[in-house]
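Question (not urgent): is this output format expected?
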Amino acid sequence: MAEEGKHHFFHHKSDEEKHEKTPEEEAKHHKKLEILGGLGAAAAGVYAIHEKHQAKKDPENAHKHKIGEEVAATVAVGSAGFAFHEHHEKKDAKKEAERQGF
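Got this back:
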């Protein structure tokens, strides 16, 4: 091997190639993550409702469906919390961009 310690060709940048994100890029990044968090919360909520319906429809396996419902509800709450966190990070990045004049 020509260079020791580097065994992957992609996704590795040397220190010279890395650049700091501008506050505008940072706000855009957090906006995308906020949207993904909201979509994750919606998807988990829909799955929780589906599992609740399956628990009523299939009394033989109701316990399994109730557990799935609870897990999906917990994931929905966690995902919503992540979206909320990213919303505040986005606001902070926008304030920083305005402060720096971007």
